[in-house]
């Protein structure tokens, strides 16, 4: 099975050391363009664009990078509760059409109550997933060409539909990650690719089995992906030295503040990430070559595969053997590490390398009249 490899656009900042301004660099459009083009040059299928108040807007970043790339796909955050599902469907269809069918969407419900409150979302964990489930039902059906009436607990629409469909049919793929029971239930019923953060293989095996079983109960099959950092060097010793350098500017106060901030999250996935290391520097290799140092101060994905190319490739293959076909990787700084991954890691893996396709043909439409299309006029006899 050829593996789909994705890279990460660091719209929240980038540099050589975690938790420090030393070695930091400005993340402007020119830099993001460099990272995206490096990922495309090295053979990555696409890039994940993160979301949150610490990030540049994912949709605008994706739109700005479409003209400077040829076949790179953009995995863009979809935020239920922040935008209506019908508007989000129009945005998704537009981005898919204007990118030539290079979009994927990542459903993100959020987990930080303080950040959610800032966006006007006051629902608790359970209600947030109820609303996300309703949002996804509407979003999918509208994109698939239906005229949707929906009367739910959180969302109501009447006659919701698209005039301009997406290029990808029946719609662009939907990705999603979540470790709680409601998250897994949503994934099993509605999403195309279920994502996990980089937990040890046995924990990942358990999550895959749970989602796969629930999907089968709906008569569905779900693909699986994983989000990991990588620190790849020519030798294992060099890789471990690079891992230590990455956190060499961290002090205990910085780690403590970060862990306290993560503790307020109601995300089960974030809680599982924090439990892997407990904020302790002396217990960071949590599984062979799986290092949790990134999670000392970074929320979300907090683990990295560390080693030379053959070693990291072997660990990736262990996850692939569990049923994972998509890997979203990253490393600090993201420009240089994209090249290292492509040059040192990819030769040891079976990578699905995208090819630039001819521009898809888009059906012509005339001007709309009265907010709708004019029916084709019957030929006169």
Automatic annotation (TrEMBL):
What are the GO MF terms of this UniProt record? alkanesulfonate monooxygenase activity
SUPFAM superfamilies from the entry?
Bacterial luciferase-like
Catalytic function, reaction form: an alkanesulfonate + FMNH2 + O2 = an aldehyde + FMN + sulfite + H2O + 2 H(+)
UniProt keyword list? Flavoprotein, FMN, Monooxygenase, Oxidoreductase
The protein, known as: Alkanesulfonate monooxygenase
Q: Give the enzyme's EC designation.
A: 1.14.14.5
- UniProt lists the gene as ssuD
Q: How does it assemble?
A: Homotetramer.
Q: What is the enzyme's main class? A: oxidoreductase
């Amino acid at each position: 099975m050829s593996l789909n490899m994705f890279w990460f656009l660091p719209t929240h900042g980038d540099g050589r050391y975690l938790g420090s301004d030393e070695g930091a660099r400005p993340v402007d459009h020119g830099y993001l363009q460099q990272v995206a083009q490096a990922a495309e040059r090295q053979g990555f299928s696409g890039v994940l664009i993160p979301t949150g108040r610490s990030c540049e807007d994912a949709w605008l970043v994706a739109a700005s990078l479409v003209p400077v790339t040829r076949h790179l796909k953009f995995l863009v955050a979809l935020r239920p509760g922040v935008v209506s599902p019908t508007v989000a469907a129009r945005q998704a269809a537009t981005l898919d059409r204007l990118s030539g069918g290079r979009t994927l969407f990542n459903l993100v419900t959020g987990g930080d109550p303080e950040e959610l409150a800032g966006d006007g979302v006051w629902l608790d964990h359970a209600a947030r997933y109820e609303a996300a489930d309703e949002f996804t039902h509407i979003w999918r059906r509208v994109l698939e060409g239906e005229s949707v009436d929906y009367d739910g607990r959180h969302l109501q629409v009447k006659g919701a539909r698209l005039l301009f469909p997406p290029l990808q049919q029946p719609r662009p793929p939907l990705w999603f990650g979540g470790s709680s029971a409601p998250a897994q239930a949503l994934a099993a019923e509605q999403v195309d690719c279920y994502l996990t953060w980089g937990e040890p293989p046995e924990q990942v095996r358990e999550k895959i089995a749970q989602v796969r079983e629930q999907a089968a109960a709906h008569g569905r099959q779900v693909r699986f992906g994983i989000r990991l950092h990588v620190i790849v060097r020519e030798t294992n010793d060099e890789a471990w030295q690079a891992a230590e350098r990455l956190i060499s500017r961290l002090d205990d106060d910085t780690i403590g503040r970060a862990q306290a901030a993560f503790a307020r999250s109601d995300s089960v996935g974030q809680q599982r990430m924090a439990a892997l290391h407990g904020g302790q520097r002396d217990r960071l290799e949590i599984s062979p070559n799986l290092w949790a140092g990134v999670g000392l101060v970074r929320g979300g994905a907090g683990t990295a595969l560390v080693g030379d190319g053959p070693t990291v490739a072997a660990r990736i293959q262990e996850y692939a053997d569990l049923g994972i076909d998509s890997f979203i990787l990253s490393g600090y700084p993201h420009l240089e590490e994209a090249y290292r991954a492509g040059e040192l890691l990819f030769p040891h893996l079976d990578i699905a390398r995208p090819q630039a396709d001819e521009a898809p043909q888009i059906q012509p439409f005339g001007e709309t009249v009265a907010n709708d299309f004019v029916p084709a006029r019957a030929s006169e006899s």
